[in-house]
Amino acid sequence: MLVVTTESVPGYRVTALHGQVFGVVVRSRGLAGNIAAGLRSIFGGEITEYTALLEQARRHAIDRMVANAQAMGANAIIMMRFDSAEIGQTMSEIVAYGTAATITPEV
C-alpha cells in the first residue's frame, strides 16, 4: 500500500477514488511514565517518554488506516494527514486520515 501526502503520485494516475479512510488511536502513558515525564518537564528538554508514545501511536494509526483502505479495495492512500488532540491530561488521540484510491502506472 502506497501512502503519500500529495494529491498525485508521479508516474501513476488515479483510476478510482474509494472515499475517506482513517485510523484512530487513543493512548495513555502509565502512572510511572506520567511521573517521569512530569519531573523531566521541570528541567526542560525533550520528554522521551511522550515522544516514544506518540511515535508508536502514529504507526498504529497508519496501520489501521491502511487496513481500512485495503478493505475498500484501494492500493494507495493519497493526501494523508495526521491530527492529534489531548484528552484530559493523560491521554493523546492520534488520527491518520486520507483518501483511498486505486492507482495504476502511466504508460
What would you say this structure looks like, in words?
This protein has about 110 residues and is of the alpha+beta class. The protein has one domain (about 1-105): Hypothetical protein apc22750. Chain B (Translation Initiation Factor IF3, 2-Layer Sandwich). It has two helices and four strands; from the N terminus they run ββααββ. The radius of gyration is 17 Å and the shape is elongated. The model has no long low-confidence stretch (mean pLDDT about 90).
Q: What are the main properties of this structure?
A:
107 residues; alpha+beta; Translation Initiation Factor IF3
Summarize the topology.
Blueprint: E1 2-3, E2 12-28, H1 31-43, H2 48-71, E3 76-87, E4 91-105
Parallel strand pairs: 1-3
Antiparallel strand pairs: 2-4, 3-4
Write down the secondary-structure element order.
EEHHEE
Strand content: 35-45%
Which CATH class is shown? Alpha Beta
Second CATH tier, the architecture: 2-Layer Sandwich
Give the CATH H-level superfamily: Hypothetical protein apc22750. Chain B
Oligomer: single chain
Overall 3D form: elongated
Number of domains: 1
Quick take:
Helices cover 35% and strands 43% of the residues. The protein is built from 2 helices and 4 strands, in the order ββααββ. β3 and β4 (91-105) form a beta hairpin.
